[in-house]
Amino acid sequence: MENLHYLVMKCNAALSRKIMCGANELGLTSGQPKILEFLWNFKEADQKTIAIYCEIEQATVGSILLRMETAGLIVRKQHNGNRRSLYVSLTEKGREKAEKMMGVFKKTDALAMADLSKDEIEMLKGILNKIYKNVSSEVDKNEQHD
To answer: What is the residue-wise DSSP string for 74-138?
Structure first.
């Protein structure tokens, strides 16, 4: 049997290819689907929050947001006159793309889980969350010692 890390990487690569195929058909580039999904769910946030949640470097999020803003998918606004903090939200065009992207995510999830029972799906989600927490806390510890 293959190692856990290899199986997780294979699954991630296959899911990413499927998702990006759908995203490309919508005219989206790498990173944009994650941000659209985040804004679809949370409506508005600052760049730092988006970067943390989507696990993308803040500078990279900045360039992705610039492309999204140029494409008319998002707007950035100040809150309470605070010039240092811009809040990002979807435009109507962005909401339309996000809704279509949510369909791509839903179809990809359904494909991935086609042969799994509800119990297996819940167990898998629980296990993946535990693995993520284990690895994330170890990464955090290592970064503190650097």
So the answer is: EEEEEETTEEEEEEEEE-HHHHHHHHHHHHHHHHHHHHHTTT--HHHHHHHHHHHHHHHHHHHHH
Question: How far is residue 4's CA from residue 80's CA, in Å, rounded to a whole number?
Answer: 48
Instruction: In whole angstroms, give the CA distance from residue 56 to residue 54.
Output: 6
Distance between CA atoms of 84 and 16, rounded to whole angstroms?
34
Residue keyed to tokens 């889980």: 113
Residue 55 is given by DSSP the state T
Gyration radius of the chain over CA positions: 17
Residue type, 146: D
H/E element holding 77?
Answer: strand 74-79
pLDDT in tens, 13-66: 999 999 999 999 999 999 999 999 999 999 999 999 999 999 999 999 999 999
Residue 29 is given by DSSP the state: -
d(CA 100, CA 96) in angstroms, rounded, equals: 6
